[in-house]
Design goal:
Strand order of the largest sheet of chain A: 1-3-2
Oligomer: homodimer
CATH class of chain A: Mainly Alpha
Helix content of chain A: 55-70%
Structural class of chain A: mainly alpha
CATH superfamily of chain A: Winged helix-like DNA-binding domain superfamily/Winged helix DNA-binding domain
Order of helices and strands of chain A: HHEHHEEHH
Strand content of chain A: 5-15%
Number of strands of chain A: 3
CATH topology of chain A: Arc Repressor Mutant, subunit A
Radius of gyration of chain A: 16 Å
DNA sequence: TCCATATTTCGACGAATGTCGAAATATACA
DNA sequence: TGTATATTTCGACATTCGTCGAAATATGGA
């Protein structure tokens, strides 16, 4: 991954609205959510959300797919993998104990049972 | 981890100079590097670097320790762990195969042998 | 074709951000 | 105490960023 791509990804996430959108879509899974529903859920104006979605897509964090009148957006988990690899590049040089916590965190977060109160969206 | 803390961390990293600083310190390991040496290595003005370092420390990404006239900065790996957990919160809800790649990436990056040409800094 | 719905694009405005020169602070040492 | 080195703080400047209203585009259906 290139430096400028990493910057694009980080700054895309470094904004409250976009971070909320991304996390919502991470929880929603591969099916994603239509733009309008995202806007309603997060209380964002449709045009504002549209710019934010464009930024997230351009950064490679989301995918979009048209379904009739609706456009569904979904998170792209590999975008996070790539970012982590970039940030931890050459991190421990023979001293794995230094960055082991990061690996542990990824494993723990990945397979933790859902904490949300509402049941998962049906496919 | 709180939303505002995540934003602070992401926007701290979402700037070329600061991202370079953080990655340099990740590679340097727990001993860290003095501010002046960071500035020289990355070709940044001392006062500019100083503001950037302050932002990274305030975001919890770096620690600083004075040693005589010098101040050594070091990366804080747990900052990344916490960020990953926050981003992947409730990510796979029963479908671990979805975010497994992220876990794999963390493991691969963590214990990969150093790729840099120059040998690791001696302790 | 005409209309309603979903989403995006455009243009402008205020707020936040990064960089720089100059000055201030902190430490070491003679 | 005085001086040199390391780092930070201050103030100003141009640039970038997020949001909003209004208008445009795309799709589906009558």
């Amino acid at each position: 991954m290139e430096s400028s791509a990493a910057i694009d990804r980080l700054s895309a996430l470094a904004q409250p609205g976009r971070l909320d959108v991304f996390r919502l879509l991470v929880r929603a899974g591969p099916d994603g959510i239509p733009a309008g529903e995202i806007a309603a859920t997060l209380g964002l104006a449709p045009n504002t959300l549209s710019s934010q979605l464009a930024i997230l897509v351009h950064a490679g964090l989301l995918t979009s797919a048209r379904e009739g009148r609706v456009i569904r957006y979904a998170a792209r988990p590999e975008a996070l993998s790539e970012l982590i690899v970039y940030l931890m590049d050459d991190c421990c040089g023979g001293r794995p104990e230094i960055c082991r916590p990061v690996e542990e965190a990824a494993r723990a977060a990945c397979c933790a049972p859902p904490k949300s109160k509402t049941p998962r969206v049906r496919a």
